[in-house]
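Annual report, structural modelling task.

Input specification for the iron/sulfur cluster complex:
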Amino acid sequence: MNADDRMVVTPWEVGGTIDYDRLLKEFGIQPFSELIDKVPDPMHLMRRGIIFGHRDYTRIVSAIKEKRNWAVMSGFMPSGLPHFGHKMTMDEIIWHQKAGGFAHVAVADMEAHAVRGMNWEKVKEVGKLYLKSIAALGLKPDGAILYFQSSSNFVKDLAFELSSEVNWSELKAIYGFSSETTLAKMFVTSVQAADILHPQLKEFGGPKPVIVPVGADQDPHLRLTRDLASRISTFAFEKIENGVRIRSRKGREYLRMLEKEIDCEYKSYTEHLDVFGDYNKIVEFVRGFEVEIGGFAFIPPSSTYHRFITGLTGGKMSSSKPESYISLFDSPDLAVKKVKRAITGGRGSAEEQKRLGGEPEACTVFELFSIHLIERDDELEEIKRRCKNGEQLCGQCKKLASQLVEEFLKDFQEKVKSVNLEDYEIIGI
Ligand code: TRP
Ligand code: SF4
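The model returned the following structure:
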């Protein structure tokens, strides 16, 4: 392995050869495969292992099945035009909205300004294209809020509140910040935590399960946010036999206040209460009480992680290399050219490929099929089989991919034209 191959995965840099098993272990993410069977009608990205990891997704599965109040939230930094990588996250948000979640979509204009130095007019303009894109892809106005970070006082106020729980050594440990890092870049980590937690504010209906679909590079934000969710809330819960042990992070007096409200069997100690009965019911009751007395009572957010898309030219996909990705706003002709030039898992010659078969696992065209272009599993499997047997040649695949990309972009760009953002609840246009 040469130095270039060293895996680096942080929110600001992704590089080297990605070893997903190692990523699961190092980040402490759970494999998605262990619960796919429990998900009602899983989307193609789940079925195909492109969503490979999760935190606490069982909470979302229960919320879907029990038709409870829950939300999906994710965000987009408008540093360049939306491309097929963003489409993946958009499709995930839309799938979760269809499954019953309320959708919150953030345009991370503060992040783009702080981290990429983009001016406000530009981030607004590009940000709108992201919102129009997710609308054109099928996000319904009913059950969705779209917003710009800089326009949401809920998010900005909460970010400030959360930032009082974060100190320098923690930021350094999680993000590798140095003495050169600007305060704004540090602060946008709290803004992102606020993006993720604000659907649980009482103004948005109070504590609820929230799923955050992201790429694995965003996991440091989720680790921090999950920690903050607990740290900033008053009561902490621990499962005990027959019930719940409840502690207060803000002083004993909260336990004494809570005690007066409890109408089932419990035992009172100086530093905790043991309440007996159904775990979920008790916790829900206590969270409701916390909100009543002005606390947050946040539930740690759940998350799913999708794989990084390989750039069409090989190596990583990068917004600074337009030939490495298909933008949702590329003309169909340009997109087809990019497909034609894409790196495949084919062999040096047709003869060799017929003899040895191709490698769909290492093929950017196959990746396009499985992530974006082919809905039916049997069709995809057939291409894989034919490729491996040497029955399919890359030219045929590229022809099909070009056709599908062209159709998709024509249809998408038509839809974008007829999107009216005013149909949506929007903070910040
Ligand atoms: N930081 C994310 C990115 O670079 C964008 C983002 C902002 C986000 N707020 C979020 C993602 C909240 C998930 C949840 O793409
Ligand atoms: Fe990829 Fe198709 Fe070539 Fe196989 S035949 S390597 S799937 S382009």
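The chain has 17 helices and 14 strands.
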